[in-house]
Sequence to fold (374 residues):
Amino acid sequence: MFPSAPVQTLLFVDDEPLILRVIERLLRQRQAPWHCLFASGVDEALAILAREPVDAVISDIMMPGRDGFDLLSSLRNDPKFQDLPVVILTGLNDPGLKSRALDLGATDLLNKPMEPDDLMSRLRSVLRLKRCQDDIKRQNAQLESLVRQRTAALAATRLDIIWRLGKAAEFRSEETGNHVIRVGYYSKLLAERLGLPRDEVETIFHTSPLHDLGKIGIPDRILLKPAALDPEEWALMQSHCTIGQDLLSQQASLPFGDDDLGLVLRQEHNPFLVLAAAIAGGHHERWDGNGYPAGLRGEAIPLAARIVAVSDVFDALGSRRVYKKSFAADEVLDIMRQYNGTHFDPAVFAAFEKALATFNEIRHHYDDDDGEDK
Fold:
C-alpha cells in the first residue's frame, strides 16, 4: 500500500463575507477533499500564511485598502511563497487588470460569478500543480543531498590518497608516516593563525603532506645512509624537491574521456596541484636566499612553502632519523630561534611561537609511539 497524500489546504481571500460563505457551501456540497481557510483581507491572509502551510491561494482583486495585487506582490517578493499557486478572482471584465495579474505572477484567473464546475476544475488544476512542484522540490533536495554525500566521499577519498602518497615517501626513508600527518596539521594551524581564507587553509592542509613526495626518486643508499652525505650525495638528496615538483606539475597523460571528470583531470591549472607543486619545490628554500633548489629569497618563496618549512623543521628536529637522534622540546625551540629571519619567514615564525602549545599538542596526539627515542 502506498501512503495516502496529505490533505491540501486552500486559502480564500475576499472582503465580501457572502462570497466566502457561498464558496464554503459549494465546497461542502461537492465534498471537496481539501482543508479550507478564509480571510476577509490581505493582512489577515498574510497572517494565516505566516503561521500555517497553504497549498494555493484564491483571492479577489478589488478589496478596500490593500487589494489582490498587493497580496500577489507580497507573495512573489517573499522567497517562501514565490512558487505558491495564486488564482485571481475578478468580476471586472477588464483585460488590463487580468494582464497585470498575470504579469505579477498569478497562476490562473477566474471570473465572478463563478460556475461551480469551473471553480472545482481550476482548484484541482492548481493543486495538482502544487503537488508536482512539491514533488520536484523533494526530488531536488534528495539529489542535492546525494551530490553532497558523493562530493564528501570524493573529497575523503582524495585526502586518503594524498596522505597515503605522503606516507609512502616517508616509508621509503624508514620514517613514520605520522610525520606527514603532523606536518599537515601544523601547516593548517599556521595558515589559520596567519589569517588565510578558509579555502586556502584547507588546501594547504590537504597538500602539505606531499612536501617530500620527491623522495620516492632518491636511491635507498642515500635515504638510508646513517652518516653524513658527501657533496655528490647531498646534491642528489636535494633533487627530491624538483622531483616532487615535477611529479605534481606534469599534466596527466592518461586517456581520460570528454566527460566532466576527464575535463577536470586534464585541466592545466588545477589549483590543488599548483599549490602541492609549490610546496614540494619550495619547502627547503630559505628566507635569506640560501636554500635549495632555486635559491629563492623572501616573499619570492610561496607562502605555503614558507609555512611548511617551519612545520617540517619543527617535526624533523623532534623526531629520530636514521642519521640523528631526536632533540628535546626546549632544544628544538632554541635551534629554530637561531634561524628566525634567515631560514624562516619572521611572520610565519612569530605565528609558530604563539601557537607552540598547540604544536606540542598535535605532536603528542599523533605521536609515532614506536617505543623508540623521539
In short: Strands lie at 9-13, 35-39, 56-60, 86-90, 108-111.
